[in-house]
Write a structure and sequence with these properties.
Strand content: 5-15%
Shape: elongated
Largest sheet: 3 strands, antiparallel
Structural class: mainly alpha
Strand order of the largest sheet: 1-2-3
Number of strands: 3
Radius of gyration: 18 Å
Number of domains: 1
Distance between the termini: 38 Å
Order of helices and strands: HHEEHHEH
Oligomer: single chain
Helix content: 55-70%
């Protein structure tokens, strides 16, 4: 349980701190783009009003927040009941922390703040994302590959 909590806290804190520094302190909201290692890494201001890649744009903020909270709750309950190993618990924490960080954005701004952009090899990627998205993706992949439900002991038959 501690691993899940601390990994969720770390993901949440790192995401929110990065958004504060890049978007507010460096004023990315005003200047629009900072080329860090072009074209591999650029900081580009974005407002995501939907879910991944802008899908679901136009959905109610309340619906998106409730959906995210229900999914976080379901993952938390499943992780605690399944008795997951160390790395799977960390993965669950990353997913939950990232999702909650994006929920906070929706509640404060009405959208999710995005600022990371990667392009390569002559292809211009128009999409932006944030560290919460990275944590959500890493947590989901970790759960897929690392989660093993502990086998339950068979119920004894009454004679």
């Amino acid at each position: 349980m501690r691993l899940l909590f601390w990994s969720a806290f770390a993901a949440f804190f790192i995401d929110q701190a990065s958004k504060y520094v890049v978007i507010h302190m460096w004023e990315l909201w005003r200047i629009g783009e900072i080329k860090v290692l072009p074209p591999l890494l650029n900081l580009r201001y974005g407002e995501n009003r939907g879910v991944n890649f802008g899908l679901g744009d136009g959905m109610s903020i309340g619906l998106l927040v409730v959906l995210a909270l229900v999914i976080c709750g379901a993952i938390l309950i499943w992780a605690l009941r399944a008795g997951l190993g160390k790395w799977a618990m960390i993965s669950a924490g990353l997913l939950i922390g990232g999702a909650l960080a994006n929920v906070v954005d929706r509640l404060i701004y009405g959208y999710v703040l995005d600022f990371l952009n990667n392009s390569c090899c002559g292809l211009n990627n128009p999409f932006v994302y944030n560290l919460a998205d990275v944590f959500i993706f890493a947590g989901a992949i970790g759960l897929i590959f690392l989660a093993e439900d502990k086998p339950k002991s068979p119920k004894k038959k009454l004679k």
